[in-house]
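Good morning,

Attaching, inline, the backbone tokens for the sequence recovery test we're adding to the shared suite. The designed sequence is right after.
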């Protein structure tokens, strides 16, 4: 086992490739959620647009979440290895404390705001009795089973609905340090992770038993992507690939992303989707890109800076964007739902959701994360998506683990 890293030898760097993937993921989610408001309001704004183009633009939100899951698994496993030297050396209690520092501050304030809006009886925020009421929704959010609640009782309001993915992710991390600590030294951990990968497509098809919500929101249906991310982190930590191999990985990964995101509506891809393999293929493509990004330390062109910034604030944007979407959609409706204003609705919603996410991160979630980490004697003073490069890069500030 490697010695535990110290404050002087831990050099954590942001990965532009990972941040761009997160930017793409949250962009797909934002486009889908603005689209859903228009669809529910029966605004025929896509009339005349080819089905494939419409799918690419506004129907890939679920696939965006799958990209998030892969990245999450990769980052958590990478950070665990760098912080404690190996997965089997993880401090279980400190792992939970660090996850709490990152997740809980924003989640708790979000739930407080949603509770206040429910009692204010605002139509887009009221949790109705048929889904169990406010108390049931709060309990589901705090115990990470919003997905189960929605699969059994129906969809919650959109601001609550986004918490389904957090339920999947945090349920994985509830058991991850325990499994890593006791199985991380041998091949049993690999077997567990591969079992999640194999079960993923079945969870999205056979095991969903025809429940459309469970097809998308089940635990196992998302954990295959997280498990692939963890496997990617283990691979990156143990093997060094040649430049030629890394270029091939990047090209293959981009091709797989283009295949799934761009051609899912094409007939030849239908059997893949019906088998639940489209999301697995997308996850594998994401992993290949991450490997290339991690081992080449690829730097993004300046033209991609907006996407990088969006990716860096993806958690804050994801949890808060529906406030912006609802606000501007109500404005759109009050103006009579003019068709010419639809592109403006998309642009303004995405831009202001990004700004809100940045403000929430700077003014609340990062300071709270930093404060809670200081209490754990964490040496970092900034936050981000990071791995340790093979050799220190000059003139780059250290950043903290996600």
């Amino acid at each position: 086992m490697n010695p535990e890293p110290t404050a002087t030898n831990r050099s954590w760097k942001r990965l532009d490739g990972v941040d761009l993937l997160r930017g793409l993921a949250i962009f797909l989610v934002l486009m889908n959620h603005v689209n859903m408001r228009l669809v529910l309001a029966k605004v025929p704004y896509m009339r005349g647009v080819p089905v494939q183009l419409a799918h690419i633009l506004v129907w890939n939100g679920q696939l965006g979440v799958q990209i998030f899951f892969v990245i999450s698994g990769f980052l958590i496993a990478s950070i665990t290895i760098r912080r404690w030297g190996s997965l089997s050396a993880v401090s279980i209690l400190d792992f939970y404390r660090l996850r709490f520092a990152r997740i809980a501050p924003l989640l708790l304030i979000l739930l407080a705001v949603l509770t206040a809006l429910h009692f204010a009886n605002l139509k887009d925020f009221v949790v109705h009795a048929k889904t169990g009421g406010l108390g049931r929704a709060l309990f589901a959010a705090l115990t990470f089973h919003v997905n189960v609640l929605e699969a059994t009782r129906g969809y919650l309001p959109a601001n609550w609905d986004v918490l389904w993915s957090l339920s999947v992710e945090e349920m994985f991390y509830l058991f991850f340090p325990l499994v890593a600590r006791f199985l991380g030294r041998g091949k049993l951990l690999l077997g567990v992770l591969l079992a999640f990968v194999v079960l993923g497509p079945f969870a999205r098809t056979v095991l969903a038993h025809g429940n459309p919500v469970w097809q998308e929101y089940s635990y196992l249906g998302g954990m295959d992507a997280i498990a692939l991310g963890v496997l990617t982190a283990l691979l990156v930590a143990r093997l060094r690939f040649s430049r030629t191999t890394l270029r091939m990985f990047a090209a293959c990964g981009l091709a797989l992303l283009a295949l799934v995101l761009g051609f899912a509506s094409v007939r030849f891809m239908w059997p893949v989707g019906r088998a639940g393999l489209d999301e697995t293929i997308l996850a594998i493509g994401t992993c290949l890109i991450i490997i290339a990004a991690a081992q080449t330390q690829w730097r993004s062109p300046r033209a991609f800076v907006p996407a990088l910034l969006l990716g860096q604030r993806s958690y804050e944007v994801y949890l808060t964007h529906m406030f912006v979407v609802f606000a501007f959609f109500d404005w759109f409706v009050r103006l009579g739902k003019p068709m010419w204003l639809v592109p403006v609705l998309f642009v303004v919603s995405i831009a202001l959701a990004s700004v809100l996410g940045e403000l929430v991160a700077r003014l609340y979630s990062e300071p709270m994360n930093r404060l809670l980490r200081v209490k754990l004697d964490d040496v970092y003073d900034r936050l981000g998506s990071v791995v340790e490069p093979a050799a220190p890069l000059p003139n780059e500030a250290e950043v903290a683990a996600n």
